Task: structure prediction
Amino acid sequence: DAGITQSPRHKVTETGTPVTLRCHQTENHRYMYWYRQDPGHGLRLIHYSYGVKDTDKGEVSDGYSVSRSKTEDFLLTLESATSSQTSVYFCAISEGRTSKLDEQFFGPGTRLTVL
Amino acid sequence: AQRVTQPEKLLSVFKGAPVELKCNYSYSGSPELFWYVQYSRQRLQLLLRHISRESIKGFTADLNKGETSFHLKKPFAQEEDSAMYYCALGNTDKLIFGTGTRLQVFP
Result:
């Protein structure tokens, strides 16, 4: 597995509380992505980053914010969690040097439950 | 709008049978297409991409621009092929994934 870790791996929280998920890479890859995986919806892109402090929205960005202050860390924050944000969250990285569409390598996922 | 459609949620076959997982896309431009796979208790990983035109684990996929399809095929399914398969479309520097097809191969 590429050097990608996600923390926490599991989290249960209550509606209205803030939640931050962390993605950490040791590959020095340029691109980092946050997806959510839901039955019937597949993987949907939340936000992504193409460099330190450079981020952009994905398909389902409402209710989420991100930050990337270092190459190796990409944080996903739910400012006020809702039950609709119960999901499995995946981080992915790609090198982005030879092609903007280099292979993406995925983390192990974080299972988030919002009660 | 760019979109990827995988019409089958579940595909069940017996070992040794041919497999075809369907993928259709809509994209205004020259598409880049991928198949990713998630085996049980493993991370999602790239299976193949159309520009490499290679066969991985016996799987092939041909881009058909006329039919806007990128179906994944294997002539003889194996039990270890059981997994979740996602078709993905490249859109500048990100991917659009389909909803996925779960392949079950029975002995």
